[in-house]
Write a structure and sequence with these properties.
With 348 residues, this protein is of the alpha/beta class. The protein has helices spanning 38-46, 104-107, 149-152, 155-167, 183-194, 207-215, 228-235, 250-258, 281-284, 300-308, 314-317, 327-337, and strands at 2-8, 11-16, 26-35, 66-67, 71-79, 91-94, 97-98, 118-119, 132-136, 140-142, 175-179, 199-203, 219-221, 240-245, 260-268, 289-292, 318-323, 343-347. It has two domains: 2-154 and 312-347, Quinone Oxidoreductase, Chain A, domain 1; 159-292, NAD(P)-binding Rossmann-like Domain (Rossmann fold), CATH 3.40.50. Helices cover 28% and strands 27% of the residues. Strand 17 (318-323), helix 12 and strand 18 form a beta-alpha-beta unit. Helix 4 (155-167) crosses helix 5. The protein starts with a strand and ends with a strand.
Length: 348
């Protein structure tokens, strides 16, 4: 079968590999749609970050080249011995977190903080940029028959956004700022709106992404036109309750901190390719809090339920649909060159 594999920086190849076989306790999916994630893009331009490049991953036992793709939906085409929650024909999505189940974090239920955590589609095991994939039953979530496969491909990134809001100190009626209106930033805006934010400010340069954020109900702050921190301080009477950093750009990190009120909180949602410096005194003297998240835990059912109510709608976020054979030039390269792109979905 055809599968997109990471071989190195700027070296993604559509390889012919063996179709995976179902095993006891696993579910085989015919992949329908897979989204290109910001994490995938980081691996393409600066990896390996999550990809095991020099040594096998401790859970999967695999190392590069690995099949990519972790934001995907598919149809159940075969089930392994002992599988009870699925049947052939079900629509499904995958919660792509590998965890050991034995470390302190896993024992406390915080499986996304596992000491050897890896992402399916980044750490090995298979991935969504392929025709078929086989996944352990516990990682698979059924989606309603009425939900489109395109919508299903947005469950994973939406889970990041919902988890970011849940893990923050945000409360109904608070004011929030989202730094970066890419796919995850836009989904954070949606999650904040669903959670009852009074005002949501989106800090973004791209005209197309500003328009998307505005359509979702955010108030736009253009950093090329104003001093972001001064503007947010003025508009919120002293700073936002919570800010969410979703750019991965080092210079933006301090802005996100400085824009919060006394005692406010800044959430790091993005992955950074480089180190970022901050000014500790501007945290200490305002008693601000910095928090961060990786992935999600225990939120997929809530995301699917919210989607049934119209939240995180695919038609608001998907800007391009392409075939697997075009994924490098029309997908990864397009996201680097075309700033009007938000979420690109790939049909397997």
């Amino acid at each position: 079968m055809k599968a997109l594999r990471w071989h190195g920086v700027k070296d993604l190849r559509l390889d012919d590999i063996e179709e995976p076989a179902v095993k006891p306790g696993t579910v085989k999916l015919k992949v329908k749609w897979c989204g290109i994630c910001g994490s995938d893009l980081h691996e393409y331009t600066a990896g390996p970050i999550f990809i095991p490049g020099e040594a096998p991953h401790p859970i999967t036992g695999e190392q590069a080249p690995i099949v990519m793709g972790h934001e995907f939906s598919g149809e159940v085409v075969e089930i392994g011995e002992g599988v009870t929650r699925f049947k052939v024909g079900d629509k499904a999505v995958v919660e792509p977190i590998f965890n050991c189940g034995a470390c302190a974090a896993c024992r406390s239920g915080k499986y996304n903080l596992c000491s050897t955590m890896g992402f399916y589609g980044l750490a090995g095991g298979g991935g969504g940029f392929s025709e078929y994939t086989v996944v352990a039953e516990h990682m698979v979530h059924k989606i309603p028959a009425t939900m489109s496969y395109e919508q299903g491909a947005l469950v994973e990134p939406s889970a990041v956004a919902l988890y970011a809001v849940r893990q923050s100190s945000f409360k109904v009626g608070d004011k929030a700022a989202v730094f970066g209106a890419g796919p995850i930033g836009l989904l954070v805006i949606e999650a904040l709106k669903a959670a009852g934010a009074a005002d949501i400010y989106a800090v973004e340069l791209s005209p197309e992404r500003k328009q998307k954020a505005e359509e979702l109900g955010a108030i736009i702050i253009d950093p090329s036109q104003v001093d972001v921190v001064e503007e947010l301080m003025a508009r919120t009477d002293g700073g936002t309750d919570v800010s969410y950093e979703v750019t991965g750009v080092p210079q933006v990190l301090q802005q996100a901190i400085d824009s919060t009120k006394v005692g406010g909180e800044m959430m790091i949602v993005s992955i950074f390719e480089k180190e970022a410096s901050i000014k500790p005194n501007l945290i200490v003297t305002k008693e601000r809090t910095i928090n961060g998240i990786i992935g999600y835990r225990n939120v997929f059912p809530s995301v699917i339920s919210l989607m049934e109510k119209g939240v995180f709608a695919a038609d608001k976020l998907v800007t391009k649909r392409i075939r697997l054979e075009d994924v490098v030039e029309q997908g990864f390269e397009a996201l680097l060159k075309e700033k009007n792109q938000v979420k690109i979905l790939v049909e397997a």
